[in-house]
Amino acid sequence: MSDTEETQDDKDGAMEAPINSPEVEAAVEENVEPEIVEEVEAADEADAADSVDAAVVNEPAPSGEFVATDGAVLGRDFVLPGVAPGDNDPYKWHTGRKREHGSTDAIEIVDVVKQFGRTRILNGLNLGLPDDQISMVLGPSGTGKSVLIKHIVGLLYPDQGDVIVKGQSVPDLSDDDLFEMRKKFGLLFQDGALFGSMNIYDNVAFPLRQHTDKGEDEIESIVTRRLREVGLGESHYKMPNELSGGMRKRAGFARALVLDPEIVMFDEPDSGLDPVRTALLCELIKEVHAESGGCYMVISHDLGTARRIADFIAVLWKGRIVESGPKDELFESDNEFVHQFLQADVHGPLAMD
Amino acid sequence: MVKATATKAIEPAKEFFTEAGEMMILTGRTVMSAVKPPYPYGNEFIGQFLFALQLCWFPMLVSCVAFGFGAPGLQAANFLSLFGALDRLGGFFVLASIREFAPFVTAVVVAGVAGTAITADLGARKIREELDALQVLGVDPIKNLVVPRFLALMLITGMLDIYALLFGIAGGIGAELLYAQPLGGFFATLFSNASTTELAASVLKCTLFGAIIAIVCCYKGMTATGGAAGVGRAVNEAVVTALLGVFIFNYLFTQTMLATNPDLQTIK
Ligand SMILES: Nc1ncnc2c1ncn2[C@@H]1O[C@H](COP(=O)(O)OP(=O)(O)OP(=O)(O)O)[C@@H](O)[C@H]1O
Ligand SMILES: [Mg+2]
Fold first, then answer.
1. Of A5, A203, A239, A311, which is the most buried if we count CB atoms within 10 A?
2. What's the gap in Å between A159 CA and the centre of ligand 2?
3. What CATH architecture applies to the domain A51-57+66-342?
4. Binary contact (B136, A183; C-beta < 8 A)
C-alpha cells in the first residue's frame, strides 16, 4: 500500500472520478459485482468529462433517500462515494463523538460541505484539531483527507460551512490576509510537490528566500541541517526528477519545516518509505514537535505511525468524522467502524466497495 | 430521462461559456496584477521572452518566406500577370502581408510553438501540485507565472510581426524575381499603398494576438486535470482555442480598423 507507484495510481484515479477510486478498482479486480464492472469499463473509455455521469452507478434507488441518524436528509441530486443504493443511514457509525483532549483547538472545521460536480466529498464535516499536539486524520482512501487539507490552507473553498484557523475564518480572508496567514503553515503535499525547475537545495531554501530576510549563509546552515535530518545531505544538487518517490517525500518534508511553522500538515509523510525510514521519520516528527510545538496534523494509512506519534486521532469516513479523541481512548473505542479501522480487521462496516 | 438528455446537450455549451468567462476574469486579474506593485516578475519575463524567441525565430523565418513566396507571392503574381500588372504585387502585399498574413503566420507559429510550451509547462506544474505548493508558500501564480508570460508573448508577437513582414516581403520579392520583373514597380506600389496607420494597426493587432494566446495557454495549463494524459489534452485544447480566439478577434479588429479608417480601402 505504500510505495510510490501506488501513490501515483491513487493520484491518477483521484483526478478522474469517484468511480475510478481505488476501492472500486480493487473491486473490479476481484470481480465482485459484474454489473459495476461493465459500467466501470465503459467509464474508463469515456472521456473525463463524461465520468461524472458514470458516477450514477452508486446513485440511491429512486425511492430511497439518505436519512442520517442526526435527521439530515440528503437529496438524490448528488452521489456520496462509498454509499450503496438503498443505504438508508450511511452514518449509523458516525457518533461524531469528540472526546476531551485538554487543549484549545487551533483548527476548527464547522459543517463543511464540499461537492465536486455531483459527487459530495465532504458532507457536513465537523472537526477540531488541538493546538500543541500531533493529530492524525485517518480514513479510507478517497474519503477526502487531501481535500480537507486544501480547505485548511485556502486552496479550496467550502460550498457551505466554515474553516477557522487560529480564530480566523479562512474562506473570508482577503487575498493579502490569506498570503499572510499561509506563512504560518508548513505543508507536505501527498506527492511532495517539489519545484521541478529547482534542485533540492533551492527547493528547501525557497520558503526562506520568499518569506525571510535571512542571508545566504544563514539559509545554507538551516537548509543543510534540515536536509541532513531527512537523510538527503548528499543530494543537494540533484533535481527532483532524479530522486526516488521516497526521497522526494523527504525533501518535501524538509521544505515544509524550514520556516518553523506554527501549523504543520503532512499528507502521508510515510508513504513510499521503507519501514526503518518510516520509524526514523516518526521520531523526527516527534522531535521537531517537541522542539518547536504547534499544531501538527498528519495524514497516514499506517497504524504503526498512528501508534508512534499521534496524540489525537480523528477518523474520517463518508465526508464526516466517525469519532475523534486522544489516541489511547480511540484505540480502545467500542465504535464498530473505528474498531475495525484501527485494528485493520476485515470484518466490519467497511468493505472494498 | 428527458432531463438527462437536456443536460447532456446543454452541458458543453455551459462549459464553453464558463471557460470563456473564466478566461476573461484571468485577463482582468493578470492586467491588474501586472500594474499593481510589487514587480517580482522581471527575471521570469526575460527568461520567457528569450525562450519564446529561441523557439520561434527559425520556424517563423521558414514559414514567412515560404508563405510569402508561395501564397500571396506566386499565386497573386500568376493572377496579376494576366493583366500585365505585376508591378501591383507590391501594393497587394500591403493588403495581404501587412494586414493579414504576417499577423496570421505569427499567431499560428507563436501559438503552436511558444503557447504549447507554456501550457505543457504550467500543466505539468499543476499536475505535480507545484502551483498549489507555490500558493501555500505565499507566491501568487498569476503575478509570478502568468504576468511574465503574458507580457513576454505580447512583446514577442509584436516584434515577430515586423519580422514576419520583412521575410514575407522577401518571399514576394522572390516571386517577383521568378517572373523576371524589375523590382522598382513592386517597391513603388508597396510604398504608395503602405501607411503608418496600416503598420501600427498590424503591430497592435499582433500584440493583442499574443495576449490572447498567452491567456488561453496559461488558463489551459493551470486548469489541467487528469495526470499526464490531462496535460496532453490541455495542450491540444489550448492551441485550438487560442487560434479560434485569434481568428475571431482578427475579424473584429480588421473590420473595425477599416470602418474607422475608410481611406485604407482605397488602392493607390
Ligand atoms: N479538484 C478535484 N476535482 C474533482 N474531484 C476531486 C478533486 N479533488 C479531489 N477530488 C475527489 O475527492 C475524493 C477525495 O480525494 P482525496 O484526494 O481527498 O482523497 P484522500 O482521502 O486523500 O485519499 P488517499 O488516502 O488515497 O490520498 C476523490 O474521490 C477525488 O476524486
Ligand atoms: Mg490523499
1. A203
2. 20
3. 3-Layer(aba) Sandwich (3.40)
4. no
